[in-house]
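the two lines:
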Amino acid sequence: GDSVTQMEGPVTLSEEAFLTINCTYTATGYPSLFWYVQYPGEGLQLLLKATKADDKGSNKGFEATYRKETTSFHLEKGSVQVSDSAVYFCALINTGTASKLTFGTGTRLQVTL
Amino acid sequence: DSGVTQTPKHLITATGQRVTLRCSPRSGDLSVYWYQQSLDQGLQFLIHYYNGEERAKGNILERFSAQQFPDLHSELNLSSLELGDSALYFCASSAGGQGPYEQYFGPGTRLTVT
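prediction for all of em together
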């Protein structure tokens, strides 16, 4: 079945540092890929998405590129802020089978001053 | 604010009891999804309804059931509750049925079974 693998957390960075959170996936067909963010005590917010190979999703300074050859969708940000501290989830929808989201385990990011 | 509402925000109940969680999708969205978030299982898909009809089932226990009403709100019913059912339950909505539609999540209902 479909699966998403994320790097283990927590990730601790100083403010203005560069962020990479690795995400790889296994899926048949051509899935769409998403990053969601969960702030403490809140629900999940869609951060960005990409629906086909080589697409780049971007939002609020975050970027991720859909790499079919390496089945990856790594999340990057050039300069993190304390307000970016949250849990980040990589997810996919495999339109060949169903429209449910399959999530990774989440990566907690802690940004300090 | 995603536009998806869930009630109640918190629920504390005893083992063996039954509870109902309610979800109202974003205006215009026809699909409702339910997910369970727990420390040991992570985020798991439970069930998907589109315009009143069940479209897909995931890891949903037989003690759990759901429905979507004509006004498109949805309810998730959990019965014969066990300690292991304690979790965050999220509802999400999207515009379409099957496809890579963006799903917008509500704030969740935190269920504690004692």
